[in-house]
Amino acid sequence: MLQNKKMKYQRVLLKLSGEALMGEKQYGIDPKQIISYSQQIKEIVDKGCEVAIVIGGGNIFRGISGAANGIDRVQGDYMGMLATVINGMALQQGLEDEGLDVRLQTAIEIKQIAETYIRRRAIRHLEKKRVVIFSGGLGNPYFTTDSAAVLRAIEIEADVILKGTRVDGIYSADPEKDKNAEKFTNISFKDVYSKGLKVMDMTAFTLSEENQLPIIVFDMNTPGNLREIIEGKDIGTLVS
Ligand code: UDP
């Protein structure tokens, strides 16, 4: 596989929310989404990009919604973490079906189905052009997979976090409610705070800012976007 010298980012951390896997469904995993995401990820791996993925679990279970229904918060959070492992397994299968080498690592030990998270091992996989999926979040309750995405990105020295969503970037207001909402191409961490915009939860966002880790928010449901970002095109919104 030839290394493409024109790539802007050599090593990326792609954050996919659990909800993104639902596609048209109200719950769970839409196989069409898995196939589409796997194809897009293959495109950038084929260009020589090193790809680590953090996957969410909101399509299956969120600790906070469990708590609202009488489930102990910590118990619910662990259920949420396990949901991310289910999503990770589905994505691993989808990526393998595209012919990629994939390693699933978990923050909670489940050794029959995945490797336990070991930073040096993850980096070695990336150097060998294997896709690494980090599931189980951080392995601690009261955190989100956005925090896991930022921490893992810092640990593996990723160039950028690519937050794949259903919207095409960060707007000055909700574009569905406000016709005058403007999309930012670039925005600083400070402006995100001062304008009261939401990119990630605060714990994750602050960690990213403190470590000067840029975040690109983009629409993962438009095939080609991921590749164009790697090639250096201004897709979505860059927070830096
Ligand atoms: N979670 C947790 N610790 C973590 C990551 C996740 O407790 O480090 C739990 C939490 O309950 C969360 C759920 O797992 O609601 C699913 O993750 P998240 O909500 O981040 O998924 P996404 O919104 O990306 O689908």
From TrEMBL:
Main EC class the enzyme belongs to: transferase
Annotated GO MF terms: ATP binding; UMP kinase activity
Pathway: Pyrimidine metabolism; CTP biosynthesis via de novo pathway; UDP from UMP (UMPK route): step 1/1
InterPro entries referenced in this protein's UniProt entry, alphabetically: AceGlu_kinase-like_sf, Asp/Glu/Uridylate_kinase, Uridylate_kinase, Uridylate_kinase_bac
Regulation (activators, inhibitors): Inhibited by UTP.
EC number(s) recorded for this UniProt protein: 2.7.4.22
Pfam families on file: AA_kinase
Keyword annotations: ATP-binding, Cytoplasm, Kinase, Nucleotide-binding, Pyrimidine biosynthesis, Transferase
Function text: Catalyzes the reversible phosphorylation of UMP to UDP.
Subunit-level organization: Homohexamer.
Name used for this protein in its record: Uridylate kinase
